[in-house]
Amino acid sequence: MARPREFDVDQALDRAMNVFWTKGYEGASLQDLLDAMNIARGSLYKAFEDKHSVYLAALDHYGRTEIQRAVDGLCDRSAGDGAVRIHRFLEDARAAVVKRQDRRGCFLCNAAVDRAPMDAGVQAKVLAMMRRMERAITAALNECAQAAHWPAKRRAEAALALTNAYVGLRVLARSGFPPKDLAAVIRTTMQGRGLNIDGA
Length: 200
Prior knowledge:
Tetracycline Repressor, domain 2, mainly alpha
């Protein structure tokens, strides 16, 4: 009979994710991870093998939690018109700074810059998650009164551009840009796509 695992994997991954999110892959030592996850070295090796495996698992955890939350928000018809949902999605990058004083950026966006160019496994996960966001934005555009008359190609191109805008906003936030500049980017992005929100 297999022995029960000595720790909660999701809780441990959430803690590991925050270490990588704050320090980056290279900046996070194995001891940092062990301390944050509150597990012994042997337990880590049994569950994840090595630091790289923990990083990949943390990316998957981010996909199941934060990315899924964003996708759910973009696809939630009860949350208003598609343009309203897209605006809220972009606005979350500014809210992280204003409401949560969080300038870590997006773990996915950080991974895209930090590890994806040199790590095929990370690159595949990053691309898959960004495509998930892009598809969710497309779904919101399909349910947007202002975009209802657009041809499918224009909606697809707009979804890609809006994904790019989100990534850019997260990078600007991490770089220290003030909230007013983030708000200006959001406003210009929405208006440039023909998605005007009252009061935005």
